[in-house]
Amino acid sequence: MTLFLQQLMNGIGNGVVYASVALALVLIYRTTGILNFAQGEMALFSTYITWKLTDAGLGIIAAIAVSTLIAFVFGAVVERVLIRPVEHASPFVILIVTLGMFLAINSITITIFGDDEKQLPSAFSDRAWNLGDVSITLEFIGLVVVLAAECLLLWALLQRTKLGLGLRAVASNPESARLVGISSGTMLMFGWAIAAALGAIGGAVYVPTTPALTAGSMQAVLVYALAAATLGGFDSPLRAVVGGLIVGAAESLAIQYVEPLHDITLVVPFLLIGAVLLFKPTGLFGRWVVERVCWQSDAKGHPSRCRSSSWPGLPTCPSSTDKVNSCRGARRSISALRRWGSTCSLATTGRSRSATVHSSELARTRPRS
Prior knowledge:
single chain; 369 residues; mainly alpha; ABC transporter involved in vitamin B12 uptake, BtuC; two-stranded antiparallel sheet; 4 strands; globular; disordered C terminus
């Protein structure tokens, strides 16, 4: 039992780091719909900056603060220069861009800082307390406090500030946000900047727990963070945090009690991702929701094709300010859904009516966590 509790504590300590990076992934996904595969390398670059500052004589806390600020600016520049030009392109184009960023940032990091191992001091002392036979270190407590502070500050930002309101509005409905004067581009830039800052903090507190800082230090963390976000659901930062803690605990316990996994620890997150996608694609805490759909009829009375705003090349759904003809009823909407395989979420005004369709009748529904 003592060994189990100790491994559980170690797993939660690692899970805090996975949760921190998963928070960054979810924040970008919610605001832009992009899965940023370069998040780990962006955190790696910031961690190297932290090491460089400490090597120059700056204290570790001050170095983390400065590198977090640099990461904030770096994330905003990446969104403006690399992501903004392709934001309306095919999802495959955006995927290639983020993978290219992954390789480019890693290569730039090696070019600037070298590929030799480096030692980053910890922000916490090695003091420990014994609770029975279980050892609780100050580093473990510090990691938990850092994650709690990140969650609290992120909640306060999203729920209690004008910037957070703008971020949530753009994440919920970009078209309507633009109609009320919110700059979607600015909000997306801030989303990337905040995510980069979160990754910088995660890297700075994680690397001291490893043998050394290398160019591959954050690659495994990215895989675990993806597993955490998949497990909790990409629509909820809080659930991603819970997913990170679960992934960390599962990794630690599996390594301890499943002997074949001692040297292939990355099997654990891949198994978790596969299991979630196979049995619960919305995540452990997700659920399927049914949207209200409305079909705009053409001159002959036939419903015109409707699409999600993220699909390029097809006519967009009418906004709440457009003149929308009456819906043709649930039966007609259902047949159109089966024919085109897409739904349209639409807030209508005036005399327009929406047809509510049950999930059993839909050819396709949208998951939400």
